[in-house]
Amino acid sequence: MHDNIGGDISIKVLSQALYLNEDYLSHLFKKYIGLSYKQYTDIKKMRRAAAMIDSGYKPTDVAEQLGYMNYSTFYQRFTQIIQRKPSVKSQRYVSKIPPIDE
User: Fold this and answer.
1) pLDDT tens-digit profile of 13-60?
2) Residue 6 and residue 27: Cα distance in Å, rounded?
């Protein structure tokens, strides 16, 4: 999943790769990670996005590379999770995101 963060990392694709039922995998994920699969992947994507933007990539390019067809959806997720606009570069905001074990 981490290697394909810009591709299709849906619970359906993951469940097929692991030969598990989607609902069962969702339940396990919530139980052991403490977040829904969607919440987890959104946080992972936005952390990657923040790092890329802070490295100098354009937010629109980052959104596209992470699989967002609509920039406004990316913008909403980014501001919700990272708590800053994608156009603002600063590593100090990235540290406010709750840690997730790799």
Assistant:
1) 888 888 999 999 999 989 999 999 889 888 988 998 998 898 888 999
2) 24
Q: How many CB atoms lie within 10 A of CB 44?
A: 19
Spatial contact of 59 and 72, defined as CB atoms under 8 Å apart: no
The CA dihedral of 88, 89, 95, 97, to the nearest 10 degrees, is 40
Residue 4 DSSP symbol: G
Cα–Cα–Cα angle for 78, 83, 87, rounded to 5 degrees = 60
Tokens of 31: 């139980």
Write a three-state SS string for 71-84: HHHHHHHHHHHHCC
Element housing 44 (H / E): helix 37-54
Whether the Cβ atoms of residue 45 and residue 7 lie closer than 8 Å to each other: no
pTM above threshold 0.90:
no
Residue 78 is encoded by which pair of tokens?
């980014």
